[in-house]
Amino acid sequence: MTEFEYISVLLSIIIGLAVTQLLSGIARLVRDGRSLAPAWWIMALVATLLLGSLQIWWISFQWRRIEDWTYFSYVTFMVLPSMIYVLSYLVLPADLHLDGATLVREFIARRRPFYALLGLVPLASYLQQWMLVGDVPLHDVDTLLRLFWLVAAVPGFVSPRVAVQATVAVASLAHMLLYISLLFVQLH
Fold first, then answer.
1. 79: which of 63, 87, 117, 156 lies 20 to 30 Å off by Cα?
2. Which residue range(s) make up the domain with 95?
3. What's the pLDDT at 185?
């Protein structure tokens, strides 16, 4: 077993927990929800987080060529999967037995930790890139696309209006689809 294989086990577990949190949350909503229509945009956030979980797992494979792992590079490697798990829990908490309208009210009331963490995602990805390969973010499409999460987090954090939340959710999903199609479809 290589160092990367050993190290990536915990990453896979944390990503698996995030995906489990999202999928079990969807299952609970379908089972217990009376009307999910008001929460349609929360499902867009869930889809974004599911795609983000898969993207983090997929892109982590690029770090397999690193031969000299340190504790700090390992911790940096684990930051993004940990963040995606917490974001998953914040959007669909384990204790939810709600209809769509209540889910919307609960999310909006507790939106600030979600968006604060979402805004830190690009910074965490840049830190990971710097710690693992010594690269600083370049002025390229990838860097600009990652900065979107910081920009998108601001209106979501500031405004409790459903229209703003829905716009951020839809823009986030569209952005994730664009990001994956532009940058990751070509990965082998």
1. 156
2. 3-184
3. 63
120-135: pLDDT as tens digits: 998 888 888 888 777 7
Amino acid identity for residue 91 in this structure = V
Question: HEC string of the chain?
Answer: CCHHHHHHHHHHHHHHHHHHHHHHHHHHHHHHCCCCHHHHHHHHHHHHHHHHHHHHHHHHHHHHHCCCCCHHHHHHHHHHHHHHHHHHHHHCCCCCCCCHHHHHHHHHHCHHHHHHHHHHHHHHHHHHHHHHHCCCCCCCHHHHHHHHHHHHHHHHHHCCCHHHHHHHHHHHHHHHHHHHHHHHCCCC
Give 47-94 pLDDT, tens digit per residue: 999 999 998 898 888 888 888 888 888 898 899 999 999 999 999 887
